[in-house]
Design goal:
Strand order of the largest sheet: 1-2-3-12-13-14-15-16
CATH architecture of the largest domain: Alpha-Beta Barrel
Radius of gyration: 30 Å
Helix content: 25-40%
Oligomer: single chain
Number of domains: 4
Strand content: 15-25%
Largest sheet: 8 strands, parallel, barrel
Shape: elongated
Length: 556
C-alpha cells in the first residue's frame, strides 16, 4: 500500500454484507467502524462475522472499531412532527405528559437530568444545531424555552446543551453492555463518546483491565470540556478522534478548524494516533463525486498530520459507499505526494531505547535508499513508535499475531504483514521472511531492507534493540576459490565477486554492450566475447547495490 494515512469507514445498511465489505477492503478500507447507536447486538455480531469473512476472502485484515453511543440526549418519541416558530415559548422535559398550559407546545426528551442541570439563559440546540432555543424559566419538572431559530422537529433528533455542564456520565449503562459485547467478540478498538476529562477514559480502561483485556481506547473529542482538558485526555487515551459533528454544534463551526489543527499537532508531538472525522465527503452520501471543498478538507487534514480520516454516513447509509472509499484513498495519496516536513528530531525525547531505535532505522533506511524498514514486533509498540516519526520509507510491521496485525491497521505508514514462522527455527527468521517477501513480490534482488528486531529474540515483547541492513540476493551455491570472475578489457579489467553478487541484474539492464549475462543456474557472469566493448563509464559499478563489481582502469 503506497498510501500512509489510514481510512476508517462506518458500516451500515449500505455496506454490511460480505460482498460489499470485500470491495471496500480492496479499495482501501483499513478500519471498519460499528456504530453502537444503531442496531442490536445480534445484528452487530453478524456484521463483525462478515468483516472477518471478507478479510479472509481478500487476504487483507482490517481492524474493527466499536463506537459506543455515550450519553446522547435526544428528543423522545413524538406522535407527529413539531413545528417550532421563532419567539414562541415551549416547554421541554422528561415528563410523559405535557405540563398544564403547554399541551400543544411540549418537547419530550429522553434525558432525565435536563431540568436539574440547566440554568436560565443557556442555549438548547436541536437537530445538529439547526434549531435553537434559550431557557427562559426553570420550573420544577420542566423548562420554559424561547425559540430563537425555528423549524420542523422530529422524533429522536439530538439535543445539544453547549452552555450546560451535563451531569450524565460518559459511560452509560447501555455503553457498558455494548463494551462487554465488543470485548467478548474481540473488537480491536473501543471508541468512547462525549469524553470530558481524562477520568472518563481511565474509568473505561479500568473496566477493560478488569475483564482481562487490553483493547485500546479512542477518546472522541466533541465537548467544550474535552477541548479544555485535551492534553490530559491525550495522555490517558490510546488514540484520539476529532468528532467534528457534535463539536461544531457545541463550540461553533467557526472554531473547529483551529481546534482540529491544535489537537492533531498535540497528538503528533507525543506519538498518539489521531483520526479526523465527520462530513469529510458528506456530499457522496447522495452524489458519486465529492465537492472541491470536501476534497480540500481531506487533503488539509493529511497535511495537518492526521493519522487517519473517517467516513460516516457516506459508507454506512449512502448511495456510493465503494466510490467514497476509493475517492478518499485517491485524495489521500495525492496529498501525500507533497508531505508536511517532519519536525526536527533533536527536540524529541529518545530516552526510550525502542524509540531511538525506530528513529535510527528510519534515518538509515533513508540514507541507504532502502525499499523497506522491516519491524519485527510482538506487540506492535515498536511500529507505533515508528509511525510517530513519519518515516519517508515504507514500514513493514511483521508479526505472528492476528490481533497485532489488526491493531496496526490504524498506524500511519505501517503496512501490517502476518508471518507465521516455525517456532523451532526462529534464529533463521529473517531469511525465512525475506524468501516469503520475494515470493510476494514485495522485495527483489538488489533491494536494501533495514530490519529491526530484538537482540536474537524474535517476536519477544520489549526486546527491539538491534538494526541490520540486508541486501536481497540469491543464496550462493558452490562458492570456492573461483568466486571472482575476471576479464581483461582495453587498458584494464573487470572483476565480479560472485559471493556478494545479489543477482539483481542492474548491471545487465544498464550495460548497452550486453557485457553482463544472467541465468538462473549460474547467476551473473561476464560475456568474454563482448568484454572488450567496455567503455569504463562505471555505470554498472554505480548501479551495483552490493559492491560486487570492480572496473580497474590502468590508463589512470
Amino acid at each position: 500500500m503506497s498510501r500512509r494515512a489510514k481510512i476508517v469507514g462506518t458500516l451500515g445498511p449500505s455496506s454490511n454484507s460480505v460482498q460489499i465489505i470485500e470491495k471496500l477492503i480492496l479499495e482501501g478500507l483499513n478500519v471498519a467502524r460499528m456504530n453502537m447507536s444503531h442496531g442490536t447486538h445480534e445484528s452487530h455480531k453478524k456484521v463483525l462475522e462478515n468483516i472477518r469473512q471478507a478479510s479472509r476472502n481478500t487476504g487483507y485484515e482490517v481492524a474493527v472499531l466499536c463506537d459506543l453511543q455515550g450519553p446522547k440526549i435526544r428528543v423522545d418519541k413524538l406522535e407527529e412532527n413539531l413545528k417550532l416558530q421563532n419567539d414562541e415559548i415551549w416547554a421541554i422535559g422528561s415528563l410523559k405528559k405535557a405540563p398544564k398550559g403547554f399541551e400543544d407546545k411540549y418537547i419530550p426528551t429522553t434525558y432525565k437530568n435536563l431540568v436539574s442541570d440547566a440554568r436560565e439563559g443557556a442555549r438548547v440546540l436541536f437537530d445538529d444545531g439547526l434549531l435553537e432555543a434559550v431557557v427562559e424559566k426553570k420550573r420544577k419538572d420542566f423548562l420554559e424555552v424561547k425559540i430563537i431559530e425555528g423549524g420542523l422537529l422530529k422524533s429522536n433528533k439530538g439535543i445539544n446543551l453547549p452552555d450546560i455542564k451535563v451531569s450524565a456520565p460518559s459511560l452509560t449503562e447501555k455503553d457498558k453492555e455494548d463494551l462487554i459485547f465488543g470485548l467478548k467478540n474481540d473488537v480491536d478498538y473501543i471508541a468512547l463518546s462525549f469524553v470530558r476529562t481524562a477520568d472518563d477514559v481511565k474509568q473505561v480502561k479500568y473496566l477493560i483491565h478488569k475483564l482481562r483485556k487490553s483493547t485500546p481506547i479512542i477518546a472522541k473529542i466533541e465537548k467544550p470540556e474535552a477541548v479544555d482538558n485535551i492534553e490530559e485526555i491525550i495522555e490517558a487515551a490510546d488514540c484520539i478522534m476529532i468528532a467534528r459533528g457534535d463539536m461544531g454544534v457545541e463550540v461553533g463551526n467557526h472554531l473547529v478548524p483551529h481546534i482540529q489543527k491544535k489537537i492533531i499537532n498535540l497528538c503528533n508531538s507525543v506519538g498518539k494516533p489521531v483520526i479526523t472525522a465527520t462530513q469529510m465527503l458528506e456530499s457522496m452520501t447522495t452524489n458519486a463525486r465529492p465537492t472541491r471543498a470536501e476534497a480540500n478538507d481531506v487533503a488539509n487534514a493529511i497535511w495537518d498530520g492526521t493519522d487517519a480520516v473517517m467516513l460516516s454516513g457516506e459508507t454506512a447509509s449512502g448511495d456510493y459507499p465503494i466510490q467514497a472509499i476509493k475517492m478518499m484513498s485517491k485524495i489521500v495519496e495525492e496529498a501525500e505526494k507533497n508531505p508536511k516536513e517532519r519536525p526536527l528530531l533533536r527536540n524529541t525525547d529518545l530516552r526510550s531505547i525502542s524509540a531511538s531505535l525506530q528513529v535510527a532505522s528510519s534515518l538509515v533506511a533513508e540514507k541507504t535508499d532502502a525499499r523497506w524498514v522491516i519491524s519485527i514486533t510482538q506487540s506492535g509498540n515498536s511500529c507505533l513508535k515508528m509511525s510517530r516519526f513519519r518515516s519517508k520509507k515504507r514500514v513493514l510491521g511483521v508479526t505472528n499475531s492476528l490481533r497485532v496485525i489488526r491493531k496496526m491497521c490504524l498506524y500511519w505508514g505501517i503496512t501490517p504483514y502476518f508471518f507465521e514462522s516455525d517456532p523451532e527455527s526462529l534464529s533463521n527468521l529473517p531469511d525465512q521472511m525475506i524468501e516469503k517477501l520475494k515470493k510476494s513480490n514485495l522485495v527483489a534482488n538488489g533491494d536494501k531492507v533495514v530490519i529491526t528486531h530484538g537482540d536474537g529474540k524474535y517476536f519477544k515483547q520489549g526486546t527491539s534493540n538491534s538494526i541490520r541492513v540486508e541486501i536481497i540476493k540469491e543464496p550462493q551455491k558452490n562458492i570456492s576459490e573461483d568466486q571472482f570472475i575476471e576479464e581483461k578489457i582495453d587498458s584494464g579489467r573487470i572483476i565480479l565477486d560472485t559471493a556478494v553478487c545479489a543477482s539483481c541484474q542492474n548491471c545487465v539492464q544498464v550495460c548497452p554492450h550486453n557485457i553482463w549475462t544472467y541465468d538462473k543456474k549460474s547467476g551473473t557472469g561476464i560475456d568474454q566475447t563482448k568484454a572488450m566493448s567496455c567503455t569504463k563509464d562505471m555505470e554498472c559499478v554505480s548501479k551495483c547495490p552490493t559492491g560486487a563489481i570492480e572496473i580497474i582502469d590502468t590508463d589512470l
